[in-house]
Amino acid sequence: MFSVCCKERNFYLSGMMEPIIRIVQLSKSFGEKQVLKDISLDIYPGQVIGYIGPNGAGKSTTVKILCGLLPDFEGSITVKGIDLRQEPMEVKKLVGYVPELADLYEVLTPVEFLELIAGLHQLEPAMAADRIQKMLVAFGLGANLHQRMDTFSKGMRQKVLLISGLLHDPDIIILDEPLSGLDANSVIIVKELISQLAAQGKTIFYCSHMMDVVEKVSDRIVLINDGRILADGSFEELQESMGKSSLENIFAQLTSTGSLGEAATSLMAAFHSGNVASAVAAADAAADSPASPVKADHE
Ligand SMILES: Nc1ncnc2c1ncn2[C@@H]1O[C@H](COP(=O)(O)OP(=O)(O)OP(=O)(O)O)[C@@H](O)[C@H]1O
């Protein structure tokens, strides 16, 4: 049984302030399949939470629930004391959400699209136009302000999505794979942006598979596997519990019971033999993930 906790900081923070987000025993099923199992988290203002886990662990499902996009769940969620189930529209005003994938209105230019989003948030038009222009330029899209987005690359679209989530200056920013498709310079901008937003007191909850980035920008890391919290603490706390290691290694230790190297070797062997289907099965067996869920003691 493994558990990593951040008792000290939670004790300290809970003595100082109320959580901005309180998730209590959150569970969610799709049909027969339970994908979230008893998730409880108190998140405090200004925290940068890196929410990590293997494919299918339940990260996107959690953030969709938090953003009010999946209303049918068990447990309770309050944001700034507002019950999400009872007042989803009030919660949505406090949250900026950047999804992993989204359909932009691609016949629009980024300026037109973002003005539309600003209108939905009832932002003052002149202030919104100024903010839109400055954010697009900061992301290197100054030359594309009036270009239709159906001509944009994946990374350019991702930047527009990011801006759309930040435009109304929300207290809580929820990012699902915000770095997907971004070039190296844009990753640096987003990392810096996350730090600066946190310094302003914004609470940031983001899902990512980029362990090196999570390690650097998060002050709290929550690792889930198969719908349960496996670990919850700062990177340093995780290192103390798991032995000094990179987050990538800690992730592998906690979420895979088999050898990832063997899994890769099995895949390569099958490509050489031409039997890809059996190779994928062999690789799955070698990696043998996910590990059995264990409950984090983070209260
Ligand atoms: N609308 C849906 N209907 C049925 N099953 C769903 C639905 N959405 C998600 N799931 C299932 O819920 C589980 C968790 O999915 P989720 O997208 O939350 O995982 P994730 O941790 O975000 O994964 P990834 O890292 O691959 O994005 C998966 O088994 C997925 O197949």
UniProtKB/TrEMBL annotation:
Gene3D superfamilies in the cross-refs: P-loop containing nucleotide triphosphate hydrolases
ABC transporter domain: residues covered: 21-251
Keywords, in A-Z order: ATP-binding, Nucleotide-binding, Transport
InterPro entries hit by this protein: AAA+_ATPase (IPR003593), ABC_transporter-like_ATP-bd (IPR003439), ABC_transporter-like_CS (IPR017871), ABC_Transporter_VariousFunc (IPR051782), P-loop_NTPase (IPR027417)
Keyword Transport: yes
SMART domains on file: AAA
Matches recorded under PANTHER family: ABC TRANSPORTER ATP-BINDING PROTEIN ALBC-RELATED
Name of the protein: ABC transporter
Protein species of origin: Flavihumibacter stibioxidans
